[in-house]
Amino acid sequence: xxxxxxxxxACSLLSIGRTTIYxxxxxxxxxxxxxxxxxxISAKSLDAFIQSIERNSGRDSLGENRG
Length: 67
Description:
It is built from 3 helices and 3 strands, in the order βααββα. The protein has helices at about 5-15, 20-25, 45-60, and strands at about 5, 30-35, 40. Strands 1-3-2 form a 3-stranded antiparallel sheet. A hairpin with a 2-residue loop joins strand 2 and strand 3. The longest helix is centred in the C-terminal third of the chain and has 20 residues, at about 45-60.
């Protein structure tokens, strides 16, 4: 497993577009690393994002988020 992914690689891994990736970065859902002119997303940040989505999906299916 790589330690960090380019924006394009993260798009491929998550099966989402660049606009969505940048929106997630802007919302603080994905942390970036800047190395020179390159923008990278750490594998840990991707894992944490996926886990948060899984936790939230689990709550929704259990009815815990219903108002």
